[in-house]
Amino acid sequence: MNILESISTALRKGDDEEVAALTQQAVDEGTAPQEILDDGLIHGMNVIGEQFSRHEIFLPDVLLAAKAMYAGMDILKPQLIKDKIPSRGRIVIGTVRGDLHDIGKNLVGIMLKGAGFEVIDLGKDVPAEVFIDRAVSEGASIIGMSALLTTTAPVMQDVTSLLKEKNLDEEIKTIIGGAPVTEKFAQEIGADAYAFDAAKAVECVKNMVQKG
Amino acid sequence: MSDTFRFVPEDIIPTEADVLHHQGIPIGVDASHTIQDLLTQAMEQFKSSAKPEGMMAEIQQAEFTDIYIGEGQNAEDAILAQIFPRADHLALFALTMGAGISAKIESLFASNSFALGSMLDAVTSLAADQAAEMCEGMFEETLSSRGQTNTETRVLGYSPGYCGWDISGQKRLFQTLKPERIGITLNDSYLMTPLKSVTGLLVSATREVHIFEPGFSYCTTCKTISCRQRLAELSVA
To answer: What residue of B is the nearest CA neighbor of A96?
Structure first.
């Protein structure tokens, strides 16, 4: 087993200390940071995502793997910055105005980072204007919105409407999720994607980025 | 005047099976040693960090009508509007798991301990639900000790933000009950801090009063559907 496979395997086991040690070893041995990221860390997270989608593993397993991913990224990040390696995409996420429930949004953020995306987390109770202003200022191509309460889900429409109003809806895509939200609701408010869970959110974001 | 009281964390801690189910692990599937270890840690951290408190105050129907009208944003077909006028007794309640446990969950996420943070979040959410059920039982006991219940009496809680009772209903509920006394505050969006807090109305009524067909406008977007289990229990009783 080469070192990249070892990183991927350790990550899938949720062994953060081993992932950190192996990532450091790979860096020291001169393996390209992009290769360590793609074929070690992201490869491991992709397998985890697939296993989770097939219900072979469960949420705690995914979160342990994510912690291991972060441990590897801590080692790798300075190298990636030094080599000016771009992320797979930049996404702004937040829980909409009027909602303080952020566990689902946090899970999506963790999974997206694990998949190699740059995530700007605006936190909770985020007004529509802030989503858009930050997406523009950060150069993000996707806004991800979460809501838990039926009463706050309509705030998502404020964001999609405002994007249209500002002629930004082609440039910045939207993805929504959360307990009161459905595929039908996403279509009704003009959101570009709906994700049932964090794994699906990653899949949707990958597709959206590929389509450009 | 309302009564305040403390819960013993051990009395409201959920079962391991419920927590695992909440974490997406199907009932009957054995959790790995790693997950079991996380669960044990989360249970222990809940017991040491949670400071669950509650309060309750009886209220007359006329006074509750004003609270219910609230900011005028309830669904026209909100089920509570049909239930509370037929109640025998009403009480407002509020409870919280405390600020410390929310801070603990946040700090776990901040230090990348996502799995333990998520597990502790699940334990705390389920404990809050359990505490709400205990409030129902406490109110029923109080009424029973005064000879104000019979074999058909059921006490159930209803909360703003659910079943057509708009979340803005929190405003007048807070003005009346004053949950700030147990550390719960309300923001401009009618959301509570600490997050793991519950408020609502306890309705003591004959069993049939609580029974309804969940086919209202707001039911189509509801994924909580906790009413189904309550209705099933009421129907069996």
So the answer is: B189
Shortest alpha-carbon distance between residue B61 and chain A (Å): 26
pLDDT for A100-152, tens place per residue? 777 888 889 988 988 889 999 999 889 999 999 999 999 999 999 998 766 67
Domains of chain A: 3-82 (1.10.1240.10), 90-211 (3.40.50.280)
Contact flag A60-B118 (C-beta cutoff 8 Å): yes
Nearest-angstrom CA–CA distance, B77 and B100: 38
pLDDT digits (tens, 9 = 90+) for A25-61: 999 999 999 999 999 999 999 899 889 888 899 999 9
Distance CA A33, CA A30 (A): 8
Convert A32-61 to b/e letters by CB count within 10 Å (16 or more is b). ebeebbbbbbbbbbbbbbebbeeeebbbbb
CA–CA separation, A205 vs B11, rounded Å?
Answer: 43
Closest C-alpha among A177, A168, A167, A170 to residue A204: A177
B158: helix, strand or coil: strand
Residues A111 and A202: beta-carbon distance below 8 Å: yes
Among candidates B24, B118, B167 on the partner chain, residue whose Cβ is nearest the Cβ of A151:
B167
Spatial separation of the C-alpha atoms in residues B6 and B45, rounded to whole Å: 18
The bridge status of strand B197-206 relative to strand B153-158 is antiparallel
Q: Percent of chain B, pLDDT > 70?
A: 96
Which among A127, A183, A99, A157 has a CA at the least distance from the CA of B161? Answer: A99
